[in-house]
From TrEMBL:
InterPro entries referenced in this protein's UniProt entry, alphabetically: NAD(P)-bd_dom_sf, Sc_DH/Rdtase_CS, SDR_fam
Entry-linked Pfam families: adh_short
Name of the protein described by the UniProt record: Uncharacterized protein
Origin species: Galdieria yellowstonensis
TM stretches of this protein: 260-280
Length: 288
């Protein structure tokens, strides 16, 4: 009889723990101030709409195109969500303090920063990129992103609380044709986020690195090569939100790309990887 009661109590405790774990994940974004860079398009836009309308977050929508942000903001508010527009150009770091202060005026300190904005190589191989194009990718994806992240982190450290999410890419794992500068910035971002995770280990600030595969957004519309396991921006947003709510260190999707394709690709030695990629992709880029 005593044993039966003990098993019953243990069972109830397990159910209670499971329930609290599930509800804490459900409520992770509720009333939190989520600041999303690159919220005017693609993954950032889908994330903003999902978090504000389905997860109860208060979202700062940041990018250069204010008209697009206003439209998304109205859409969110029409659905009962909470959002505000913040004009932000990652290539102009002098404007960062003003943008940050403006976002905190109505929504308070940033609880979650999603560093999502980026530009790519525009489908060009390295030798065809102008120095201005190279600068633009580095300024946006790396320098601007890191400067802004540094500013937000300084604020988070004052309260010893926060979550920084960096949208990197599976393209950061290995060098790819037409992805030279873009891939280098993503590899650098993933590396930096890992350093931060170690430096902030004993704080209450979490770092999550996201490695998306192909997501159907304007950024990849012009790409000629096959887009393996392409997913929609809305699906990507749900997957990212789920990984963030679990405070994962690192999360890549689709599952098959992160756990099968990339694992295999990482094991291939250079002597095989280089000619293999050359012959598989050269028709898409060699004269482009
Ligand atoms: N789509 C994919 O297949 C894929 C795969 C792997 C990783 N990713 C990553 O996912 C993230 C989102 O990509 P996406 O596909 O959604 O791209 P996207 O649709 O082209 O959106 C890019 C966003 O970045 C913003 N942006 C660009 N330059 C900026 C600047 N100087 N200052 C501030 N904002 C700037 C753009 O807004 P404005 O032009 O209005 O400023 C836009 O909102 C990126 O980090 C990308 O590397 C995408």
């Amino acid at each position: 009889m005593f044993r039966l009661a003990l098993v019953g109590i243990l069972f109830i405790c397990c159910i209670f723990l499971l329930y609290s774990w599930l509800t804490s994940r459900q409520d992770y974004f509720r009333r939190k101030h989520v600041f999303i860079t690159g919220a005017s398009s693609g993954i950032g836009k889908a994330l903003a709409i999902y978090l504000a309308t389905k997860k109860g977050a208060r979202v700062s929508l940041a990018a250069r195109s204010v008209d697009k942000l206003e439209h998304i903001c109205r859409n969110i508010k029409d659905q009962g969500g909470s959002a505000q527009v913040i004009q932000l150009d990652l290539c102009d770091s002098s404007s960062f303090p003003k943008a940050l202060a403006e976002s905190m005026k109505s929504f308070g300190s940033i609880d979650i920063l999603i560093a999502n904005a980026a530009v790519n190589n525009e489908g060009l191989c390295f030798s065809r990129l102008s120095l201005e194009q190279i600068d633009k990718v580095i300024e946006t994806n790396l320098k601007g992103t890191l400067y802004f992240l540094h500013l937000v982190l300084t604020e988070m450290l004052k309260e010893n609380s926060g979550h920084i999410v960096g949208i990197s890419s599976l393209a950061g794992y290995r060098g790819l044709p037409m992805g030279s500068v873009y891939g280098a910035t993503k590899a650098a971002l993933s590396n930096l986020l890992e350093s931060l995770r170690i430096e902030l280990y004993d704080t209450n600030i979490h770092i999550t690195t996201i490695h998306p595969g192909f997501v159907d957004t304007p950024a990849i519309q012009g790409m000629k090569h096959p887009k393996l396991f392409l997913c929609s921006a809305e699906t990507a947003a749900k997957k990212i939100a789920n990984a963030v709510s679990q405070k994962k260190y690192s999360y890549g999707f689709p599952w098959i790309m992160e756990h099968i394709v990339m694992r295999v690709v990482l094991c291939i030695p250079q002597t095989i990887f280089v000619p293999l990629l050359y012959f598989l992709t050269k028709r898409h880029w060699i004269h482009g």
